[in-house]
Amino acid sequence: MSTPATASVLVVDDEPDLRTLYELTLLREGHQVVSAQDLAQAREWLTQRRFDVLITDMRLPDGLGLELLRELSTSQRTEKCIVITAYGSAENAVEALKTGAFDYLTKPVDLKQLRAAVSAAQQSQRHVPEALQPGSAADGPRPTITPTAEPRSAPPPPAGVRALACIVGDAPSIAQIKGRIEKVATSMAPVLILGESGTGKELVARAVHECSHRAAGPLVAVNCGAIPESLIEAEFFGVRKGAYTGATQDREGYFQAAKGGTLFLDEIGDLPLAMQAKLLRVIQERRVRPLGGVQDEAVDVRLVSATHRDLAALVKTGEFRQDLFYRLNVIELRTPALRDRREDLPELTHALLQRICDETGQPVPRLSAAALQWLQSRELPGNVRELENLLQRALALSSGHTIGPDDFGDTELDTIPASIESPSQVDPCVAPTQPSPGIPTDLQTYLDQQERLVLLQALKETDYNRTAAAARLGLNLRQMRYRIQRLGIAMPSDDNDAG
Asked: Is residue 175 predicted with pLDDT exceeding 70?
């Protein structure tokens, strides 16, 4: 629906000076504003009319502002709620978001952030509410908030529809996650996406962004495991000229680049502990200080994180901060493994073939029933990423208009002897017990083949995570990339540096 020029706002605060300050600030923006000093007065207003935005202090003389949020949710009201919490009260902020608040502000409230929060809440309204019937105030000190009719959700914007369509499948787990994406997209609450490598966590993050009121802003994706620790603060928060040798000009960081949009922190579990503390401060204060800067800068981003690691287990071992996990895990989305939705394999295979062929400009071949059966028999521990890798190889080897089982080539990954699963298991001082295959006629080709087998095995066992595979083989990431390119090893199209 089209966004109205002004919003109808109810401000609930027991401090007259602050209440007046919020009113005047929003009135200057052209909004219609009324105020209440406690829960009872707020309920009176809510029985009489509908508002676009509700702003409430957490602590009021006759209760908590969260009570209003719960009552509005129970009554199926569509007001977007912004909660004001005490400075540093992380628990209250997280509780407010989990209760259904659109956003939260900390005291002392930055008026610029207040105006931005109201504007964002107004833009996020994607419901078509029915008119409210005036309620009665004669039911005692706690009148019932009049419910609307069942809200009819408008569809996501076109970009959101396209992003959801990229999450292919009709399995119940996929339908559930798509429904949750649409629901959580209209909030500012942080989202944590969990799931195995190759299950499409970045697709989910993009759908959250594209379905939200921030879709017109940028989506900045950051691979936390691929940034050298010495550069990570500068990359996240930006640099001021002269901060260090080589800093010849100001440069914005990821938070500044994502202004007005969404910052996607992929593989958040790989973030160093020192950086975790700095990230927690930014989430709490919504301000960053560039490296070499002397002043903090306000940031306006929606935070979405993802990892294939077990963050709860990392918290127990001290590798991940519990307070940061608490702040990131306000809304949890879990991407299902491919083995848990085998019924989607035919549709997934067709969609992946279509995309690969569109990128390469070749006609889309038909997948034979035998080839599909072959894929169904595979374990596919690398999930959709591994499926895409297999299809890319089949396309490269196929010579006709139909892909059969033979086009997937020899499954080299399954024929590697257990004795060479990793170089550390090979003792060069022990003679092999198996007969020698004979002296190769082309030593370099033979060595390349053996190296390729070892690299493929390491990649398979790390879910095609190049960083992890390189570490297992005693290589650095640059050496790993060079060998993959030199030996022509097909990798999925997306970034695999951190799984």
From this structure: yes
